[in-house]
Amino acid sequence: MNIKITELDHRKGEPLPFQVTLDAAELKNRHHEIRGLTPVTVEGDAVKLGNLYYVKGEMKADIDFVCARCLTPFTQHASIPFSETFALADDPQIEEDEESDIHPLEGDQIELDTLLQEDFLLAMPTFPLCEEDCKGLCPTCGVNRNEAPCSCKNERIDPRLAGLADLFKDNN
Ligand SMILES: [Zn+2]
Ligand SMILES: [Zn+2]
């Protein structure tokens, strides 16, 4: 779905609501941590205020991941807010501030799908965790330490201190 710039111009500050659904298969192909997902439902609105065009709203989907620490599959009910600002490509506001988040508008419409796909993928974790404090698998016996404790001693040694640990070992 695309939004025509002239339509936003004509609405004189009144928001234009939109609803779209993003293709799940394409998003899954573009992010290797996504093991499966429902179609992404998007609700938002677009508005022109002053010389700037704003697109904002929220995307929702159920996303299947595999925990990077304990390897357990889990489903996340994700609500991802998005907010983007555009200006005409020759708008001086874009050139003045190269750090700004204002996107130059190419052509006469905002390509919603491309924009939303990028925002969705950026919100995906590169290191998905079933729980923020997931204890992970024991590196020695392989047990899922969220489910069962084990008695292995897995002392984490800071690599910068590893040399020191060796020193102590020699002295004992
Ligand atoms: Zn986990
Ligand atoms: Zn263990």
Description:
It holds the Pfam family YceD. Keywords: DNA-binding. One of its GO terms (molecular function) is DNA binding. There is one protein chain. This protein is an alpha+beta fold and 172 residues long. The chain has two domains: 2-122; 135-172, no CATH class. It is 22% helix and 35% strand. The protein has five helices and eight strands. Strands 2, 3, 4, 5, 6 and 7 form a six-stranded mixed β-sheet that branches. The longest helix has 11 residues, at 112-122. The chain is elongated, with a radius of gyration of 24 Å. The protein starts with a strand and ends with a helix.
Form type: elongated
Structural class: alpha+beta
Order of helices and strands: EHEHEEEEHEEHH
Number of strands: 8
Mean pLDDT, to the nearest integer, reads 89
Q: Indicate the proportion of strand residues.
A: 25-35%
Give the number of helices: 5
Our count of domains comes out at 2
Residue runs with pLDDT of under 50 for 5 or more positions: none
Helical content class: 10-25%
| Ligands, deduplicated | zinc ion
Radius of gyration: 24 Å
Q: What is the rounded distance between the termini?
A: 71 Å
Q: Largest sheet at a glance?
A: 6 strands, mixed
